[in-house]
Design goal:
By secondary structure, the chain is α/β, with parallel strands linked by helices. About 30% of the residues lie in helices and about 25% in strands. Strands 1, 12, 13, 14, 15, 16, 17, 18 and 19 form a nine-stranded mixed β-sheet that branches. Helix 6 links the parallel strand 5 and strand 6. It binds pyridoxal-5'-phosphate.
Length: about 425
């Protein structure tokens, strides 16, 4: 069972000022979760979570996370600009990009960000772009092949294919990159790797950590380079479906600690600082898309049309992703009716749910589409002339702030050269 963080009376109050659809974020949930993440890794003195900005590039959210001690993980010019505008400075910024532009490296360097190289050829390209090699450089590793974790007791499996992913360097390349970087003046090194997305398993981070810790020990022996940082990147998932088990960040932190004690400490590398670049885990459950039921249609199936569409949340349309839906005020009503919940795009994939059992719907019902806090509003687009919705923040004291207004037709026309 999934319970919304906002009640029907609260929503009715909110829509008097802010019409649907909108994304609503929960300050309390965001802060409590960020504190739990930091507590889980507090055993590592240097730990820092760099929030993956692409998941929710909204200044009010980024500032909240900064207050909780998080940094910003950026991968484009405008994300770097956004991080700077939100007050992130120097090593509070991680720049993990791929297929990078020279101007992006220049801004990352000017901000004093940690730079994470995605490819061996970028050793020279970085030097040409910024005129020198920074003292600390990260390199992204790709072990290739297939990555699997055995089934958890709940029956969930993790499987991904790094061998098909465009990111990172091979094992020989990463040793080569370290040597070249050191010859050009780098003194301290970071290792980064992202193996699987949205993992529902407390084993993912510890497994990944073990791979990176062993690699770090080998690279130190092979190259003599000092490895100061290990970046476990993103990938810890959230249970989008009510029947999925939630990850336990305290268990995950303890699992990584065990690998740290087993692998790094005996190699004399107990001073390594850990980083994360979590996006989804930091935000997804603490945002929802609120939309109103507009129309019903009975043809070969039952359709409920709402005022949001895939332009507000594209994951169901593009990935067939499941997002749980509750009907505000009918959270405990029996789900005895089957609907396709649709937006208004001229694309048949514009459905938030297919064959979903819900309580009987009425016009004007407010639907809460869950877990849209990450990769929700941020993936919005303007197809069919649709305007992106507003973003609101539910404060800890129960008040609501507008943190991004809805787009207007003027925004839609702003880039046109008539
Ligand atoms: C997308 C991304 C993340 C965040 O991934 P989540 O699945 O949201 O945790 C972290 N690092 C990099 C480099 C990414 O591209």
């Amino acid at each position: 069972m999934k319970t919304p963080f906002v009640t029907k009376p609260q929503l009715e109050e909110i829509i008097r000022t802010y019409p649907t659809p909108f994304h609503l974020y929960d300050e309390r949930g965001i802060r409590e979760n960020a504190r739990a993440v930091n507590a889980a890794f507090a055993w590592n003195g240097g730990f820092k979570e760099y929030f993956a900005v692409k998941a929710t590039p909204t200044p009010a959210i980024l500032k909240l996370l900064r207050e909780e001690g998080c940094g910003a993980d950026c991968s484009s010019l405008t994300e770097l600009m956004l991080a700077e505008k939100c007050g992130f400075r120097g090593e509070e910024i991680m720049f993990s990009s791929n297929n990078t532009l020279a101007e992006e490296y220049r801004l990352a360097d000017r901000l004093g960000a940690f730079i994470n190289l995605d490819d061996l050829t970028h050793v020279d390209f970085l030097e040409q772009s910024i005129g020198h090699i920074p003292e600390t450089v990260f390199c992204r590793y790709n072990p290739g092949g297939v990555f699997t974790l055995g089934e958890s007791k709940e029956g969930f499996q993790v499987m991904d294919t790094p061998g098909d992913a465009k990111y990172g360097m091979t094992r020989p390349q990463i040793a080569q990159a370290f040597r070249e970087l050191r010859a050009k003046g780098a003194k301290s090194f970071g290792l980064h790797c992202f193996l699987a997305s949205n993992t529902i398993s407390n084993e993912y981070y510890p497994e990944l950590a073990a791979i990176l810790f062993r690699l770090a020990v080998e690279l130190k022996e092979e190259t003599g380079c000092h490895i100061g940082y290990i970046n476990l990147s993103g990938g810890i998932g959230v249970p989008y479906r009510p029947e999925e088990p939630a990850n336990n960040i305290a268990v995950i932190g303890a699992g990584v600690q065990k690998k740290f004690q087993e692998i790094l400490v005996p190699a004399g590398m107990g001073d390594v600082k850990l980083c994360g670049e979590l996006g989804r885990f930091m935000l997804a459950p603490y945002g929802c898309l609120v939309t109103k039921v507009l129309h019903f249609k009975h043809i070969y199936k039952e359709y409920a049309g709402v005022d949001a569409c895939a332009a507000d949340l594209m994951r169901p349309a593009v990935y067939g992703a499941y997002h749980h839906i509750t009907v505000s005020g009918k959270e405990d009503a029996p789900c005895g009716h089957k609907y396709d919940v649709t937006g208004s795009l001229c694309e048949n994939c514009d459905k938030f749910a297919v064959d979903r059992m819900l309580p009987a719907l009425e016009r004007g019902d407010l639907l809460v589409i869950h877990d849209t806090g990450a990769h929700g509003h941020s993936m919005g687009y303007n197809y069919n002339g649709k305007l992106r919705s507003a973003e609101l923040l539910l404060r800890e004291d129960g008040s609501v702030d507008l943190i991004r207004r809805a787009e207007t037709p003027e925004d839609y026309f702003a880039t046109v050269v008539w």
